[in-house]
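Section 5.1 Outputs to date
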Amino acid sequence: MTRILQFGTSRFLQAHACLFAHEANVAGDGPVAVTVVKGTPDAGRAGRVAALADPDGYPVRLRGLQAGKAVDGQVTVRAVKAALALPQDWAALGDVFVTGTDAVISNTGDTGYAEMPGDLAAIADPRQCPAGFPARLTALLLRRWQAGGSGLPIYPCELISGNGDVLRGVIDAMALRAGLPPAFRDWLGREVHFANSLVDRIVSEPIEPAGAVAEPYALWAIGAPGLAPFAHPSIVVVPDLEPLERLKLHLLNLSHTVLAERWLQGASADLTVQAALALPLWREMLLEVVHGEVLPGFAWRGMAGPARDYLATTMERFDNPFLDHRLSDIAQNHPAKVQRRIGGFLDWVAGGGLSMPLLRDIHDRRRAHDC
């Protein structure tokens, strides 16, 4: 049995890693058992912990388009075998980590790698539950090492480029600053594998108390060297994550930002991606940007074929009639997204001598607006 410890109970993880584990079990590629950990003392989500570990499972509804056909079905996920909540279950979590865990998954949000006040002092004290995720993981790894345990793979799923390398660096620096033994840090470097990964699935809404509505498309790409936590059609090990990261950032995310730029000029407050692209002028505008400027950039980078294939999948995802993906939500933090998604693309293809007036106009307009 593969015993997964998962930090995070978000609806994304419910419809991604936990669902994958259930599907692996159904396909005979398990058994995989997941223990989930809720890391924040949120009373409003207290019922989620019990519901996730219910032996009867929780529902995930998959709705959208796949290979041109409508999909609308429901899966009952039964891979979660236990659920813990911090800080009250800290002692139990330590026991699970030392003797009942084969791999770790995390998805702790945009600020998940932050250090919290008091974290360094709490790491070496088994009675204290550190406040921040990296300190908690460091403390648990220390306890496993002290018990003579083996190393294990850790699969961060936070949307951070090189997330495994980043998390490893944070934990190694924290161990050094906390004055932990050099032998522990040597063990971390030799036996604990932090895998870089990229995850993708649009999970549009929760089902209470546990469950989610998601699109059919899903991806969990893991950068080599490394092994997948278990076998699943949507889990792939690739030699280099950067091409997939570029496709997602500069086709799917960039297209969202182009649509958000248009929405900010005065469109309906409730307009969704699917509704916008049902309007001929909006669709023509986006396709002009993508076909006239984005695809030539990928072609110059030697990625013409993968970009065309990814665009076809992306447009099918955008046309999902069941997905309420509002442009008002996408437009949050718009200037930063323009810089990363559009500005980053312009920088990436700067040596190609390509004319990109539409993308440059959005980029320059937002930069001038911010100034």
